[in-house]
# Entry
Amino acid sequence: MQTAASYTERKYPVNLNFKIMSLSIHQSIAGLALCLAANASCTTNDHKNNTIETSALKPVITTEQVQFDTDDPAIWIHPTDPAKSLVIGTDKDAQGSLYVFDLAGKIVNKVAGLKRPNNVDIAYGLSLNGTPKDIAVVTERETNKIRIFSLPDLQPLDNGGIPVFEGEKERGPMGIAVYTNKSNHKTYAIVGRKSGPMDQYLWQYELKDDGSGKVKATLVRRFGKYSGKKEIEAIAVDNELGYVYYSDEQYGIHKYYADPEKGDTELALFGQADFAEDLEGISIYKTGDSTGYILVSDQQANRFNVYKREAAQGHPHQHQLITAIPFSTIESDGSEVTNIALNDKFPKGVFVAMTNGKTFQYYDWRDIQKRIEAQSGQPK
# Structure
């Protein structure tokens, strides 16, 4: 998961893109405490958590089913009519696909025959043959490549795929986030993998024209700490503030600069005591230049933890947990959010999340905002 690239070049408002084994007593107590702190009705399950809490938010729309296993969504904003915007989502299988849904949840296009497409993100205005192109960038695990397609028509722009993690023992790419530097307009793909070293776990590639109107990728840095506990999949970029966040499952959320020229020092590690087991998809909802929310999936609890996007006073990279909100998703991996007014169903934006059952769910941001305010006293 993961956040889409900046829409500022289109002059839109600022935006941004149960497999649990038996829980330990400590995890169960921690999860119950978080539930009670959120003032929600609580359910417990010592095995698979396929239970939807009675207080869970309900989606406005559930998409049509894909063939195998949904994993990660991205949101593409139409350049002239936001009501024609699309949701791009992966169907994770050895014969998987990249699907395109409209805002009613209907399947309107797909690229079939991808070898386990895992995560997807979007960039706007990449210059190819002198023409700006919107692109979807997808990790294809079984070929050790990233795939790149034009939007909205899903035409390949990658000469059959771009190899990643070359020379490494562990190469299968999983998570991806695309960062567009607002100062120099360079576009980068930040890629994670199933497993890797304790340091330099993420690799960052600059994306640009190969001279023929296709995309090439140049490795510009290796960075990012890894706990070794499980894996790193969910990656999200805050384009306007220039930060990258990623979920180190069963450990915490790491924060770095997204600009490779600003160095590889870890800026923050947070959320370490806030999750039942795996922390997954990350989405960033912006309410201003530097304000908003960071939503992170508490996968086995079927909740999303909500953190402040803005840092704590005097602590520029600390992010406060505001509340935990139960959703109707089951074991949510990937998610995405936009604050763009799309249509009458989503006038303050839409939050899209993967759920078991081969679908994605669309939530009206107004419902999420009401829950944040009710549970935490946060102002609009």
Remarks:
- The longest helix spans residues 25-37.
- The two ends are 26 Å apart (CA to CA).
- Residues 8-376 form a domain with the Neuraminidase fold (CATH 2.120.10.30).
- The helical segments are 25-37, 365-376.
